[in-house]
């Protein structure tokens, strides 16, 4: 017992002596290394000593300064030490307030930029990328909803660890997405089961399956079969039927305009919508290349209204040509259908139109069938540029085949023929030839939206520097953040372009971008991480929402860091008429599985049917195909 008491007493004495030694050391030791170990050399650091007031510490190059008022003994010794250090370098002690120093430092110090590590944006190898996609499907189907996948219940699988409990509830950022095209629809569907604060703004309240516009323009499918109300894609989101006129990037406000028409009167109302995160998915407009007469005299295939207009125009041409008293030359002019552009849209429309002539013509317009012609005008030397040359030749063979037994080819390909001007009755080519027509359809490319050009003007110079590649589209970084902004504005689809990895303006690209962005928002990734500088390269989006999913573990370049968007090229399809289609399915960058004819047609129909956004659309499209096969196309004009 005495020995135990002795140990306790000895320990107490040692503890008191150690505490006294530390107090003396803190008060009197003028050692720079000791001072630096206790005082962090940072301009915003505040050190609080027991009993005494705060000491504000600031470092300018290698000179230490201290700002104090009435000094204690320890502060006085520390101050004298710092003064001696500065005097050794020939400088006077700096007694300016820290606020003034911070302001001066911000003015004199160069703006720091962030350099994205190369492996953050390097494309993942194809096998790893496919494995990531497979586990994305697994992660999505492991839990009944996205919310449960982030915070599983006790009975749910434990593949994901819920985030630690937070003492404060952070409000969900207000996400505003502009548009209802492929990118926006994929984003809304991906976030449908997640409690996010989302507002969608668009002048049309439906999603349109654009690859089937050619079929809708001749009556193969009905317009309502390829449209889906946008409100049904994400019932928890808010939808505003309005046009976005401009964006105040500094104050994060969108100016909108809504037009409501009843009878012959229209009411225009304007309002503003604020946002925390803005996603621009407004698509693209028609590119006329500055050719006179295109806008005034041509039809387009960009909207459901365009398809209805073309469908009515085709029937009008046949009805006009059937009137008595017309010369043969005049009938030929009326029944000449000009398609400008031999890309997928132009070729598919020409093919659908030929199907209409071959299948409905003998029943309704047999007297004028010998005078029908379809002219496909293309500035380049080939058609369907994205396809392999072997498939291009098969498409040319299919398009120019004879349409009737012992008849003639009604489709003529006019390659290497640039358009100079279009009048109400003629198309003048660059080589001087003139083509008289009854109906013309322009399918020659995309151009920028006026809204997109306005956003570009409001961004920093880094955005304008990349316009030599973006060409009227919003230049984005690998995470789809608009270059020249602060990270709160993102863009996808036809209105966006990554200058370092230019992707084709297709529905496939926009759909994958919308799905990827939806998953990033669903997982709580911050697209404006700390350290972001307006107009500079930004740190990658980061997340701290618990343990990552299996797919994230595979794809993420670093813990908590979002993987860059990577496009998975699934291939391309094109209908060439007469129950024939082209299919080019990519296996690697250089290898693809190619098919045409009936096999390609079966693949084309199955893919288009499966890619419909709802079961309702799949059923309606299948019924339309069946009706067309049994009863033919409806030629009534309503």
UniProtKB/TrEMBL annotation:
<keyword id="KW-0274">FAD</keyword>
<dbReference type="InterPro" id="IPR054585">
    <property type="entry name" value="NDH2-like_C"/>
</dbReference>
<feature type="compositionally biased region" description="Low complexity">
    <location>
        <begin position="148"/>
        <end position="159"/>
    </location>
</feature>
<feature type="domain" description="External alternative NADH-ubiquinone oxidoreductase-like C-terminal">
    <location>
        <begin position="570"/>
        <end position="634"/>
    </location>
</feature>
<comment type="similarity">
    <text>Belongs to the NADH dehydrogenase family.</text>
</comment>
<keyword id="KW-0560">Oxidoreductase</keyword>
<keyword id="KW-0520">NAD</keyword>
<dbReference type="GO" id="GO:0050136">
    <property type="term" value="F:NADH dehydrogenase (quinone) (non-electrogenic) activity"/>
</dbReference>
<keyword id="KW-0809">Transit peptide</keyword>
<dbReference type="InterPro" id="IPR036188">
    <property type="entry name" value="FAD/NAD-bd_sf"/>
</dbReference>
<feature type="compositionally biased region" description="Acidic residues">
    <location>
        <begin position="88"/>
        <end position="97"/>
    </location>
</feature>
<feature type="signal peptide">
    <location>
        <begin position="1"/>
        <end position="31"/>
    </location>
</feature>
<feature type="region of interest" description="Disordered">
    <location>
        <begin position="148"/>
        <end position="168"/>
    </location>
</feature>
<feature type="domain" description="FAD/NAD(P)-binding">
    <location>
        <begin position="174"/>
        <end position="514"/>
    </location>
</feature>
<keyword id="KW-0732">Signal</keyword>
<dbReference type="Pfam" id="PF22366">
    <property type="entry name" value="NDH2_C"/>
</dbReference>
<dbReference type="InterPro" id="IPR045024">
    <property type="entry name" value="NDH-2"/>
</dbReference>
<dbReference type="InterPro" id="IPR023753">
    <property type="entry name" value="FAD/NAD-binding_dom"/>
</dbReference>
<feature type="region of interest" description="Disordered">
    <location>
        <begin position="84"/>
        <end position="108"/>
    </location>
</feature>
<dbReference type="Pfam" id="PF07992">
    <property type="entry name" value="Pyr_redox_2"/>
</dbReference>
<keyword id="KW-0285">Flavoprotein</keyword>
<dbReference type="GO" id="GO:0005739">
    <property type="term" value="C:mitochondrion"/>
</dbReference>
<protein>
    <recommendedName>
        <fullName>NADH:ubiquinone reductase (non-electrogenic)</fullName>
        <ecNumber>1.6.5.9</ecNumber>
    </recommendedName>
</protein>
